[in-house]
TrEMBL record:
It comes from Chryseolinea serpens. Keywords: Isoprene biosynthesis, Nucleotidyltransferase, Transferase. It holds the Pfam family IspD. The record marks R15, K22 as: Transition state stabilizer. GO terms for biological process: isopentenyl diphosphate biosynthetic process, methylerythritol 4-phosphate pathway. Pathway: Isoprenoid biosynthesis; isopentenyl diphosphate biosynthesis via DXP pathway; isopentenyl diphosphate from 1-deoxy-D-xylulose 5-phosphate: step 2/6. This is 2-C-methyl-D-erythritol 4-phosphate cytidylyltransferase. It is an enzyme of class 2 (transferase). Signal peptide: none annotated. The keyword Nucleotidyltransferase applies. The record marks R151, K205 as: Positions MEP for the nucleophilic attack. The gene is ispD.
Length: 226
C-alpha cells in the first residue's frame, strides 16, 4: 500500500514559555520539526509526507529549510484553528487509498522501527496506535476522595497513529467536539476498533522546557550507542 505521513505542527510554545513556536526551537543544532521529518525519511525515502503548519509559519519554515539545507520533497498544507481541523486539512491532500501515519511534529525522537511497525500493523488491523504502559501508580479523584486504580489497565497514548486512509478520512467527516483529543478518538467515535502497539518511552512530546533537556540527553545517548 502507498504510505503517507501527516505531520501536524501547529504549536505556539505557550507552555514552553517561548516566543518561538516549539516545532522551530533548536534541538541539537536543528529545529525540532526537522528531527521529526528526518526520522520518517530514514524509515523510507519513498514515503509521501504532508506537513501541516499555520499559514503564518510558512515563511519561517522556508527560511529554516534554506538555512539547514533541507530539500526533501513534501506537501505543505495550511493548518486549521484546531488540531482536528489541521488533520482534516492534511487528509484532504491525499488522493486515493493507502495508509497514513499521523504524527505530532514535536515528537522528534520517533524511531524508524516504530514507524515501520505502525504501517505493518495498520495494513492488517486498519489502525495502529503507539502506546506505552504506565510506570507509576495512579489514583482517580472525585471531589474530596481518591481511589487507587489498576495501572495495568491503562496506557499512555502517543503518535504515530496510523490508519487506512479511507477509514480515517470518513471518520474526520464527523462534527468536531472537545472530547475528540486525538485521531484514535475520532476513529473510535466513527465506530472503528482501535489497535494499540508498543511505543517507546523515548518518543516524548516537546511541551515544557524540561522536555527539551530530556530530548537533548536522549539524542546524545543515541549518538553514543550509534
Amino acid at each position: 500500500m502507498k504510505e503517507y505521513a501527516l505531520i501536524v505542527a501547529g504549536g505556539k510554545g505557550t507552555r514552553i514559555k517561548s516566543s518561538t513556536p516549539k516545532q522551530f526551537l533548536e534541538l541539537d543544532g536543528k529545529p525540532v520539526l526537522l528531527h521529526t521529518l528526518e526520522a520518517f525519511y530514514r524509515y523510507s525515502e519513498n514515503i509521501h509526507i504532508i506537513l501541516v503548519l499555520p499559514a503564518d509559519d510558512f515563511a519561517t519554515w522556508e527560511m529554516l529549510c534554506t538555512r539547514h539545507k533541507f530539500h526533501k520533497p513534501l506537501i505543505l498544507q495550511r493548518g486549521g484553528d484546531s488540531r482536528f481541523q489541521s488533520v482534516k486539512n492534511g487528509l484532504d491532500k491525499i488522493d486515493g487509498d493507502g495508509l497514513v501515519a499521523i504524527h505530532d511534529g514535536v515528537r522528534p525522537l520517533i524511531h524508524e522501527d516504530i514507524i515501520g511497525a505502525s504501517f505493518r500493523l495498520a495494513a492488517v488491523h486498519k489502525s495502529a496506535v503507539a502506546a506505552v504502559r504506565l510506570k507509576e501508580s495512579i489514583r482517580m479523584t472525585d471531589q474530596d476522595t481518591t481511589k487507587a486504580m489498576d495501572r495495568s489497565r491503562f496506557r499512555l497514548i502517543q503518535t504515530p497513529q496510523t490508519f487506512q486512509v479511507d477509514l480515517i478520512k470518513k471518520a474526520y467527516s464527523l462534527k468536531e467536539d472537545d472530547t475528540l483529543t486525538d485521531d484514535a478518538s475520532v476513529a473510535e467515535r466513527a465506530g472503528h476498533a482501535i489497535s494499540l502497539f508498543e511505543g517507546s518511552y523515548e518518543n516524548i512530546k516537546i511541551t515544557t522546557p524540561e522536555d527539551l533537556v530530556v530530548a537533548e540527553a536522549l539524542l546524545r545517548s543515541r549518538k553514543g550507542r550509534g
